[in-house]
Amino acid sequence: MESSNDFRSILPFLPLILRSSAVFWPPSVLEALKSLSKGPIHSNVNSGQLFALAIDDLRNSLGFSSLNLSASLGFSLFFDDLMNKDDAVKWFTEVVPKLADLLLRLPVLLETHYQNAGAFNETDTGLRLFESQQSGIVFLSQELIAALLVCALFCLFPTTNRGAKHLPPINFDNLFLCLYEYYDVSQENKIKCILHYFEKISSDMHVGNVSFERKVLPLKNNPSCIVYPEADFWSNSTLSLCMFEVCTSGLIEDHLTEALEVDFANKYLGGGALSRGCVQEEIRFMINPELIIGMLFLPSMADNEAIEIIGAERFSNYTGYAKSFRFCGDYAEKKSCDTMGRRKTRIIAIDALCNPGKRQYKLEFLLRETNKALCGFLDTNKSRQNKMPINEIGNDIAIGVVTGNWGCGAFGGDPQVKAVIQWLAASQGLRPFVLYYTFNLEALQKLEEVVQWIILHEWTVGELWNILVEYSNQRLKGKTKVGFFSWLLPYLYNDDPMNFD
Asked: Which among 293, 339, 349, 408 could bridge 263 via Cys, Cβ 3.0 to 4.6 Å?
């Protein structure tokens, strides 16, 4: 394999060694994986306790420390106590050997990957580490993703320097540590989702692709890209607002037609998916586990960055949220594939301000949130190729935005303001529609009426932005304490009949 600089950037974060332009498992790891691949009769790995010991042996062969004791006990707790006995037998006799075999093929899968990098277009699409402010895209086969996720399950990724590169943890040891130290049923069910994925791919390896794109709005003048907009840009925008549909029931991930589905992200992709987190982003990463591999090579997002992932397949059904989260069996993916072999599932990770309090009404933070959403909602490939100014991009974009209470809930944002911000960003990005799931949030009960009133009056992006800034100014100065909707249309909250005149 000819090793490019891009490959060398990710090599320190992979558990492989490079010799003569090719990657290999160290000999002792290779032998241990061969033993595992032959099943428990040969490897003696037939319980959670012995599985953890086998993982320790692999880690020690790579020069890593042993698993944290609580993580080892978490493996034992799950596989020996919580897992159905018949399912545990199947896991160790059928699934683990196939996962070990997949790891044995990782070097070849990587070699094939780099040989094919750039096959979809003239851009290098090889697996690499993205530095902050570095835009680009990586195409990974579902098989390579599966092998890399087995590395995470077996806790084989090096951890040195991940923090220095602003990369989140990627090994699964913390999932099992949290299960043991902070047991709750939701954590057990998160692991059930992950294991269901491994069971499914071990019996039926899917052959599609997934792309991971780091999108950046440059902070300085760049002739070929959009520059991070200032407040005057938003104030002067004459673009029309796009269609906005309100849904009081349903879930973003259940939307079946192709659209940009918003991940209410942490600035570290995945948030608490591999620890104790179990809200919107973490749940999405459990039911679409291929998303997790983005955590391997995508550092934390700056204010002018977003991450778009296309093609991640859904494997699990679920019910509940947070502590009520439960795995509910297999999900049969319904979405078709595009010409690049990616499922038509587009997920855009944008991180909102965390616990912003009153500062969210300051102009600089309104601008930050609106530009963050714009970065996510823009089709940067079209803008780069066509070198269009921002107000002309996307005339042929037919893919809308499916979203909800981004930056609210645990993040503490104002849901009425956040809904308007997303509408502004989608409209400025010339997305044809926003489909907004309110999750029955009381603060958004009047969202439909407010949207209808604004659309009836044919406001532009600039006009709505200016009104939002005026409201936020009054809120910041204590001149009003009511929500944006009540401030804009007080009659809606006085039991008066709706009057658009």
From this structure: 349
Residues with Cβ within 8 Å of 470's Cβ and at least 6 positions away in sequence, in order, are none
**Nearest Cα to Cα of residue 340 among 140, 106, 200:** 140
Angle between helix 142-153 and 106-116 (nearest 10):
140
- The residue type at 55: I
**What is the spatial distance between Cα 413 and Cα 39, in angstroms, rounded to a whole number?**
51
As given in the structure block, the two tokens for residue 30 are: 């290779």
Name residue 201's amino acid: I
Computed over its alpha carbons, how large is the radius of gyration of the chain? 24
Backbone angles phi, psi at 136, to 5 degrees: 160, 175
The gap between the terminal CA atoms of the chain, to the nearest Å, is: 70
Strand partners, 260: 346, 401
215-493 is a CATH 3.30.360.10 domain: no
For the chain, give every domain's residue range.
5-205, 215-493
Helix (H, G, I), strand (E, B) or coil at 328: strand
Tokens of 275: 């620890």
**Is residue 320 a contact partner of residue 328, using CB atoms and an 8 Å limit?**
no
Alpha helices in 363-480 (DSSP H): 363-377, 380-386, 415-428, 447-456, 461-476
Q: Which residues of 297-336 are buried (b: 16+ CB within 10 A; e: fewer)?
A: bbbebbbbbbbbbbbbbbbbebeebeeebbbeeebeeebe
**Cα–Cα distance between 134 and 225 in angstroms, integer?**
13
Handedness of CA 442, 418, 276, 191 (dihedral sign): positive
Q: Which residue in the block uniquely carries the two structure tokens 């999900």? A: 331
Total count of residues recorded for the chain? 501
Helix/strand/coil for 405: coil
Count of CA atoms in the C-beta half-sphere (13 A) of 340: 20
What is the full per-residue pLDDT of the chain (501 aa) written as tens digits? 444 457 889 999 999 999 888 899 999 999 999 999 999 999 999 999 999 999 999 999 999 999 999 999 999 999 999 999 999 999 999 999 999 999 999 999 999 999 988 665 556 899 999 999 999 999 999 999 999 999 999 999 999 999 999 999 999 999 999 999 999 999 999 999 999 999 999 999 989 999 999 999 988 766 556 789 999 999 999 999 999 999 999 999 998 889 999 999 999 999 999 999 999 999 999 999 999 999 999 999 999 999 999 999 999 999 999 999 999 999 999 899 999 999 999 999 999 999 999 999 999 999 999 999 999 999 765 544 444 444 443 334 489 999 999 999 889 999 999 999 999 999 999 999 999 999 999 999 999 999 999 999 999 999 999 999 999 999 999 999 999 999 999 988 875 444 333
CA angle 227, 131, 115 (to 5 degrees): 110
